[in-house]
Prior knowledge:
This protein is α/β, with parallel strands linked by helices. The chain has helices spanning 21-37, 52-64, 80-89, 114-128, 142-163, 185-189, 199-208, 214-226, 236-253, 269-274, 279-287, 298-311, 326-331, 367-373, 437-446, 462-471; strands at 9-14, 43-44, 69-74, 94-99, 139-140, 165-170, 193-197, 259-264, 292-293, 316-322, 344-349, 358-365, 384-391, 394-403, 409-418, 428-433, 453-458, 476-479.
Amino acid sequence: xxxxxxxxxxxxxxSRDCFPATLSEQRRKDVAAALGKAKIPVTEVTTVVENxxxxxxxxxxxxxxxxxxxxxxxxxxxxxxxxxxxxxxxCGPVMFAAAAEETGKNLVxxxxxxxxxxxxxxxxxxxxxxxxxxxxYPVGTACEVAAMIGEFLPVAKALIALKKLKxxxxxxxxxxxxxxNAPIKPLFDLGIEIQENSELDLYVKxxxxxxxxxxxxxxxxxxxxxxxxxxxxxxxxxxxxxxITLLDWAEANKGASEYFVxxxxxxxxxxxxxxxxxxxxxxxxxxxxxxxxCETDIYGAVTEYILQIVTDLxxxxxxxxxxxxxxxxxxxxxxxGSYKPTDLFMGFHCGNTPICHLKNGELxxxxxxxxxxxxxxxxxxxxxxxxxxxxxxxxxxxxxxxxTADCELRSYIxxxxxxxxxxxxFGGIGIIAVxxxxxxxxxxxxxxxxxxxxxxxxxxxxxxxFSIMKMLGVCDVAYNKPAGQLYCGxxxx
Length: 493
């Protein structure tokens, strides 16, 4: 996938001048060696920071190596002022970690006291107003610190990407889906750019591309990707025309940003004017690392983008849509383990999920829009373009970042799995199990007034997402609490 940054990591050892700098230096080399074994590239800055002059030397070395993320490593107690100044002046995400003592046989000349130094480092980061990434337990051996750095990388990647992200929107957020409306100021506060456009702007460019030779090339690529699932070949040219139009728009309008996503209105005027449902195009762009959220869901687009960064896989956006009937539950009970009926729901969208995440994905037409816009006795035309199929079974993470009406960011994270059970319905759809989903639904999704769109990431990545939310300053990060742990306001009786 494209449309994401590459993390170029640097590591700088620090040393308080009354401790031997050679201790920090050797311990840094040990961490770098452990990173090498883990195949994590890193630039080792040879300057050991003991004072402000060393800070400037280290920053120059980091800049020369094009480092965009930094590990400040306390090989011993560390100098509180210089080490936090280094973090303050570095332009990128910074992690702090400290060395554990290696052996009880060398606790006189070889004791570093970094366990103590991390406390003062944290205090001084607060004084400088620097938000650094600090692991859950930030002290360890070389191999343990290397593992911590491995967990830092996707966090750093997300923070770098969001600072250089632009969201393109087309069309006003639908009145019938007010849940997709939320204040966008918190996104500007994160450094994200937003360019809101009219559907007419897109339509003008779309019409201009009608005879573009690329249309046939992209349509042929679509046909090859769909294979036997190409049930609506007559709409491929229109879909291809839209795809090149969106990509052209982004290329011409990225400006100072490096990465981009879309949040586009997709009904009902879209069908009558563009002559299709855009879902399959959305799925193809998402597969290339360019999420396109439905119904102008700006926060949905950011949600998908964060998920793809932390999983290194395309994500999708689904409605938390409908319950699983009891008869379907009973018929499949032997495959459900300890899941209760209320732990299950169906995640659905018209057809935006990338084909790599679907069992037997097929290009079809949107049944609900067809009822609204076309004669049911005639062959579908303008409502063609959905990519439909059962979502592949496996581990998933439900996630969303959202603004409240008063511009406070909040989010939720829940681990679950998509089950290998036929949903017996239409669209891109899957039966998803989340432990204690009923209580999570009531006290988080309903209780905290989240919209119906949820990001679905493929894999369990809650730990990384939680760290990213903390680094972004999101204080309210909800999760599905296990039985016996009450939510605030949950009835205990």
